[in-house]
Design brief:
The protein is mostly beta strands. Helix content is 0%, strand content 54%. The radius of gyration is 13 Å and the shape is globular. 30% of the residues are buried.
């Protein structure tokens, strides 16, 4: 099982980034997919979730209206489009796959929002 995040980097406040998470080694289309983040000195928090078929979504209040999660089951990839970024969005962002009490994590990608 492998989840590989990409797309992180340094961006100015108000800017945008698109994170990708490429999955392999399991049946991607059967798993709910989520993005989490962890800022220095803070606990890991759920950012967004998309169900296996892509029909339902859940977002943290802090990112509603700014972030959009999506998936392409044909490419085994989940995305996180992040707009109107704020300094408080700075964190390591992790991809998570979950089904039937089984979860898999990626290694994370750093997002830094700073002028």
């Amino acid at each position: 099982v492998q989840l590989v995040e990409s797309g992180g980097g340094l961006v100015q406040p108000g800017g945008s980034l698109r994170l990708s998470c490429a999955a392999s080694g399991f049946t991607f289309s059967r798993y709910d997919m989520s993005w989490y983040r962890q800022a220095p000195g803070k606990e890991r928090e759920l950012v967004a979730t998309i169900t296996s078929a892509g029909g339902r979504f859940n977002y943290a209040d802090s990112v509603k209206g700014r972030f959009t999660i999506s998936r392409d089951n044909a490419k085994n990839t989940v995305y996180l489009q992040m707009n109107s970024l704020k300094p408080e969005d700075t964190a390591v962002y992790y991809c998570n796959a979950y089904r039937s009490r089984i979860g898999h994590w990626g290694q994370g990608t750093q997002v830094t929002v700073s002028s």
